[in-house]
Design brief:
Helix 4 crosses helix 6. The radius of gyration is 16 Å and the shape is globular. It has six helices and 14 strands. It is α/β, with parallel strands linked by helices. Helix content is 25%, strand content 30%. It has a six-stranded mixed sheet, covered by helices on one side. A six-stranded mixed sheet has the order 7-8-9-10-13-14.
Length: 204
């Protein structure tokens, strides 16, 4: 199983992630945010060979550190084409990325942005701004679509309850959760229909 290291990466409560294969030490950086230096420090500490730079979406608080990661490592940039123009690797629904001896699967989750994606490996998902602990991403920004966000959350709800969630921000009562926890505690996640979801979003 790929190992996931969560890094507090900005004053906006962003999380960036280093994931790596413990056998080969091949790794991927996800959303380096405002403090890519912290991610690179962890890369050096663990002896990881950074092969990929993955973005969940294009907002600056997530991608501001891309340039430094690409300058300092041999990582290839991978993102959805609706998020980042001309990445080295274009991601779409169902894309599979080899990392060491393991696989990262891509789930396209439009809503917060058209090109938002979730990265899945075994029973772990890195959700960017699609799903937070106890909350979900905004749908009132340019390019956002509240109906698409609702549909994306419905897809994540179908994952096994033991699936571990690693969000893009520290907005909840804990830094990670599970699908099972969200099904009990996240009002946005358990809305029974699109109308109740839109109503709840409007009350924020």
């Amino acid at each position: 199983m790929l190992q996931i290291t969560q890094i507090y990466a900005s004053e906006m409560a962003n999380f960036s992630y280093l994931i790596y294969c413990p056998e080969t030490l091949h790794g991927a950086a996800i959303d380096p945010s405002m403090r890519p230096d912290l991610l690179l420090e962890k890369v050096n500490e663990l002896g990881v060979k950074l092969k990929l730079l993955l973005n969940t979406h294009e907002h600056q608080d997530h991608v501001a550190g891309n340039a430094l990661i690409l300058e300092r490592t041999e990582a290839k940039l991978a993102a959805h084409s609706a998020a980042i123009p001309n990445p080295d690797i274009i991601l779409a629904e169902g894309s599979r990325l080899v990392l060491g001896k393991e696989i990262i699967e891509v789930i396209h989750t439009p809503g917060h942005t058209p090109g938002s994606v979730v990265f899945k490996t075994a029973d772990q998902i890195i959700t960017g701004d699609t799903l937070f602990v106890g909350r979900c991403g905004r749908a009132d920004l340019p390019g956002s679509n509240v109906a698409a966000l609702y549909n994306s959350l419905q897809r994540l709800k179908a994952l096994p309850e033991k699936t571990q969630i690693y969000p893009g921000h520290d907005y909840g009562p804990m830094v990670t959760s599970t699908i099972g926890w969200e099904l009990i505690n996240n009002d946005y996640f358990i809305c029974p229909d699109i109308q109740s979801f839109i109503k709840l979003r409007m009350e924020v």
